[in-house]
Amino acid sequence: QVQLTESGGGLVQTGDSLRLSCATSGRTSSWSHMAWFRQAPGKEREFVAHIRGRGGDIAYVDSVKGRFTISRDNAKNTVALQMNSLKPEDTAVYYCAAAVIDYSDYGAPRDPLTYDYWGQGTQVTVSS
Smaller CB count within 10 Å for the chain: N or C? Predict the structure, then answer.
């Protein structure tokens, strides 16, 4: 059974940093797409960052460009999200997601429906 497990969330102040990690039960190199999404209370799930299991095609939502960095470590089967200069609007539950099928459509990495497996989420709270 495939499992994705996020860790690294917490309560921080504006301007602080956090590093989220997603451990996968399968090889990260075997996934076509891996991504981070987030969901704030009362809002829809939002795409944050994407990377292919074999690397490349890195993409971010505009609001985190220059502050967040997605990376994967295929030796450890983990995907990380380094979050710097955190803002209160970054407060949300952050989810790791993985997709088996390789979609070539430009919008696929940002679409939650692309992803077959999801983690349980980790809470990130940024106080002002």
Answer: N
